[in-house]
Design brief:
The protein is α+β, with helices and mostly antiparallel strands. It has six helices and four strands, in the order H-H-H-H-H-H-E-E-E-E.
């Protein structure tokens, strides 16, 4: 065996040794790998001044009232009495209830909404409808929608386990009041009227009946 062949064999052996050594350190790469820049971008970056703390504020509450206020504490107590209670879901239901109750009152059809009204609220609604009919007045209303809705205040009676939530509404509608002759005595069929109300809903937390009652109205 000549010297050239011996040198080639020695070099080949060194090359095999180096390849095995590199694989043991770097591992085997298969498939697609991100370039260094992409890998660097994919690393999570710490955000200065931001930290998630377990047991922090309940956003379902603090999205609607300021933390630490009496209303916030009342909502916390409601959730403790009924863990499935959600402020966001309640406000969504209040939006639908407002339109349903308001339009039923405008039409003078109180039978369908009586289950959702406290007795004294129902009586005041019924008296207003009777007075309107006695004067021969009719109302034509086209409900456009609710432009503003906000939780105004909340209270919780820990003894009765009753929660009360006041909601502020601003609705937009077309409304016309006509007399017996069909003449317009109030409103306009084309002008937009803004109706502002503060309605208070109440319910015993944890009760099997999921319905909230309208217990007070104001503006």
């Amino acid at each position: 065996m000549n010297s050239s062949l011996i040198q080639l064999l020695v070099l080949a052996g060194i090359a095999v040794f180096l390849i095995l050594k590199l694989k043991s350190v770097l591992g085997t790469r298969e498939g697609f790998e991100k370039p260094p820049a992409a890998l660097e971008e994919a690393k999570p970056r710490s955000r200065k001044g931001f930290e998630v703390i377990d047991g922090g504020p309940d956003l379902d509450i603090t999205d609607h009232v300021a933390a630490g206020t009496d209303s916030a504490k009342a909502l916390v107590a409601m959730k403790a009495a009924e863990p499935s209670f959600s402020v966001g879901e309640f406000l969504g239901g209040a939006r639908g209830a407002y339109e349903m109750i308001f339009m039923a009152f405008e039409r003078g059809d109180l039978a369908q909404i009586k289950p959702f009204l406290a007795p004294d609220v129902y009586e005041s609604f019924a008296e207003a409808v009777e007075a309107r009919e006695a004067q021969g007045l009719t109302i034509e209303t086209n409900f456009i929608g609710i432009s503003e809705l906000a939780l105004q205040s909340a209270e919780f009676d820990s003894v009765a386990r009753e929660g009360e939530i006041a909601v502020r509404f601003v609705a937009e509608l077309h409304s016309v009041v006509r007399n017996k002759l069909g003449e317009v005595v109030e409103g306009s069929p084309t002008a937009i009227k803004r109706q502002r109300d503060v309605w208070t809903f109440a319910r015993q937390m944890g009760a099997s009946d999921p319905n909230w009652l309208l217990v007070a109205t104001g503006d």
